[in-house]
Amino acid sequence: MTQEWLRVPIGPEAHRWATRTPDRLVLAVVHNVTSLTRLLDVVSALDSDPRLQVLFTWTRSSPFVHDVEEFLNDIGALTIPWDQALSTEFDLAITASYGGDLHQIKAPIIAVSHGMGYNKKLSRNSEDSQAAFGFSAEWLLHEGRVVPASIVLSHPEQAARLARDCPEAVPAAIVAGDPCLDRITASTRDRERYRRAFGVPPHKKHIVVSSTWGPRSLMAENPELLPRLLSELPIDEYQVTAALHPNIWHGHGPWQVASWLAECGRAGLNVLPPRDGWRAALVAADVVIGDHGSVTFYGAVLGHPVLLAAFPDRDLDSSSPVARLGRLAPRLSTRRPLAPQIAQALAEHDPARYADVTGCATSVLGDSSRLLRTELYRLMRLDEPRTPPVVLRVPPPTPQDLPSGAVTAALVSVEWNGEEAVLKRYPAATAMYRENGTDGRHLAVDDSEAEGRLLNLADVVYCLNDGLTTTANDWLSETLQFFPGCHVAAAEQRTGECVVRTRGGDGVTCRTDRPDLVASVVYGWLASGRSMAALPAECTVSAGLTSHRFHFGHH
Length: 555
Known about the structure:
By secondary structure, the chain is α/β, with parallel strands linked by helices. The chain contains 22 helices and 23 strands. It has a 9-stranded mixed barrel. A 7-stranded parallel β-sheet has the order 3-2-1-4-5-8-9. Strands 12-11-10-13-14 form a 5-stranded parallel β-sheet, sandwiched between helices. Helix 10 crosses helix 11. The protein is elongated and about 85 Å long.
C-alpha cells in the first residue's frame, strides 16, 4: 500500500498533509464492544511499527450498538464508515466476530475468537445447528469460498471440531494461542496488588460472580443471586464483585443495569464497568460463580473453585471445553443457604480437578503474541520488527472503576465469650427484608448513610473522623436527640479515640483501630443485660478472621 493511503477520504484534506505514508494499511473490524475489547489484544501485536496504519470500522451488524462509537473515540481510533471500508483495499483485516458482509472486504482476513475459544452455538437460521459459533459453514463460507485467510485457534482440539463442522476451512486454521489468557496469567504473580485494588485484604475471600448474556444466562435465570449473596455473606469475611457481559450493559443500557444493581451497590458490591475489569477480578478471585460464559472458564483455568448458578447445555457444542466443564463443576443451589456451599467449594477444591478440560484453553501459553504477530506480518507480506512483542499485564481497577465504596449500614450480631466479643455483620441494604429479617441483630448505621430510612431505624449510629464537622460531644447529643430509636452513638475524634454515649447518658471512651465496631460492641454488651459500669477495661473484638484490642475508659 503506497499512495492508496492518500485517497482514503477519512476527513477533509486529512491526507494531503499526512506526516507518513504507511507501507501497509490494516483494517480492524468492530461488531460490538465485546469484539472491540478482544481486537485490542490482537492489534497490540502491531504496536511500535511506524510502517503501519490501522483504521477501525464498525459493521453495525450486531444488535448491541450502544457505546461502540464512544469506545472508539475514547481510545483515539481513526475510523471509517463500513461502506467505505468495503470499497477500499487493505493489506490486512482483523475481525473478532462474524456478521456483516465480511466476504466483501478487499484484504486477507484473520479471524480470532471474541471469547474463550469456540463454544456457544449461534445460528442465523435456527437453534438446531450443533456447530459452535465461528465453526459452521454459514459463518465461514460465502458461495463455497472460505472467507477468512486465517482462522486463529488457541488449541489443537478446536481444529478437530472445525474439521467436523466445516472441513473446507481447516487449511485456513492456525494455532496461535489466546492473547487474553496470556495477559491474565502474566498478572497472577502480583495477585495481592489486584486484591488490594478490589478492597480485599488477606483475611477476606473474594467472590467473583460472572454472567454472560441471553435468556439462559445467570442474570436471566438467577436475578436474585447477587442480593442473596450479599445478604448471606458476612461483610468482614467476603467481598463480592460482579462481572456482567458487555451485551447485558449495552442491550439494556448502563443506566438500567446500574438501576437493577443499585441495592447491591449500597450493600458493598463491586460492579465492574462493561469494557474491562473482569480479567483483573479473576486474578484477585478466590471463588468464581458463573454460567457458560468465558469468564467462568477462565476462572477455572486459573485454578479457582467454580460454582455454576446457570448452565444451558443446549446452548453449547457438547464437545467443547466449556460444555465439558459444565459436566464437571458443582452447581450452586439457590434452594439452600449459599455461604455453606461456598465454604464447601473452597474446602474441597483441587486445582487439578479440571486440568484435562482447562488445558484446552491454549496449547501455547505465554506465546500467543509472538505467534499472532508472525501470522499478521505473513498475511501483510512484511518483515516482522526485530524487537519481540510485548505481553502487558492487565490493569488493576481504579477507585473510579469501583465506586460502590464501604458498607455504611449493617445488621450486626454480637456474642460475648468472657471478654471476647464476636461480631458478624451483614449489609442492611440487602439483608433487612430477606430471610429472617433482623433475626435478633441490631442495625448499625454510619451517619453518612444516604438512605434516611435506615438512619431512622438504626439502633446504633456512628461517625468516623472524616465525617465529623463538630465536636464529638455535640455530635453525640444531636444524634441521640434527632434519632429517638438510637440507643448507642459513637464518634471518632481526630485523636483516634472514640467517644460512646448511650441514650441514658452513660459514656465511655475507646482506643481502637476499628471505630466502626465500637458502638456495636457497647450495644451488644448492654443487650446482654450487663451495665455500662461492668464493661471491661480491655476486650478482644473479632470480626471475621481479624481480632482487635479495644481499650475502654469510663467518663
